[in-house]
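Q: Structure tokens for this one, please.
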Amino acid sequence: MKKILFIGNSFTYFNDLPAMTETLLKNAGISCRAASVTKGGAYLHEYADREHELNRLFEEAYGNENYDFVVLQDQSFNPAGDKADFMAAVHTLSTAVRAGGKNPCLLFYQTWAYRYGSEKLSGTGIDYETMRLRLKAAYEEAAARFDGRCVPVGTAFAASCALYPDIVLYNDDAYHPTPAGTYLAALLFTNAVAGVDISALSDIDALAANDCARLRYIASALCR
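A: Here is the predicted structure, written as tokens:
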């Protein structure tokens, strides 16, 4: 059985990404269990700080289990705005999860830029492409430095918006994912965990079959 622990915030718990990933894996015939520790707006440095309540929750979730995969997801703008803070938190957490002889695979959840043209994006002071590329670079660098793997969800969002603009990936708030956005993320995590053929993965009830197929096409193209 593959065991996965997701550490993050609302980008993880919206539409229950861990459960959706678990369902896709099980539908593909792969035994798995996905758990999570999340809080809205949480930063990885809060999970890394031994004086913070989120560190206690992380330690409780992780301490008594041998996870095969640990997913790390920072506050949605932080890796683009304060990469040093992001890297410091990843360093602390990567050391913690590999202590005591444990050696899970670290998966870095590369998140997406806020919706193009939105007030949410303009409030950051940078444009869509700058935010997208900064997030991509930060998560890829973390994966390289800390012997993990980057799961390119943000890249998939950009590709889907360009190729299939009718598929709505963003909630009305311009940054949280819709079920379509979470499905796209779950496809990539399913491949990262088990190397399965994304094109053969199951649909979800919340989306039209054609939309599921088109999102599988996007995800498959990034995993070749």
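A few notes: The chain is about 50% helix and 10% strand. The chain has a mean pLDDT of 98.
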